[in-house]
Amino acid sequence: MKSLEDLKKLRDSARQMMHLREGGDSVRIVIGMGTCGIAAGARETLAAVMQELERLHLYDVVVTQTGCAGFCDKEPLVDVILPGQPRVTYAKVDGERARRIIDEHVVNGRVIEQWVIER
Predict the structure, then answer these.
(1) I want to staple 30 with a disulfide (CB 3.0 to 4.6 A). Which of 54, 79, 102, 116 is the partner?
(2) pLDDT in tens, 8-18
């Protein structure tokens, strides 16, 4: 940090990231973070989701975590819930898939059927 302006930018970025995790009301993304999910790479998936949402300035998306859903062999799992639509659960979501899910499903409303395990 070299100036007060740098500190303000850092504060604003932190606030936006907190809003991604807690605030908003239009779209929900739920990431399975049970031990099976974490072992399969869910932390990296969560990081990719957060980075992509920030890159696209999508600050009205709620990102939450959940425990094991019982599909341990399909982890990491990611649920996307758009308003007025049923939940869509994606399987084996790595960072690359997470970014595509944000771009295709969250932004454009197109479900990536080949990765879906539950609707």
Answers:
(1) 79
(2) 888 887 777 66
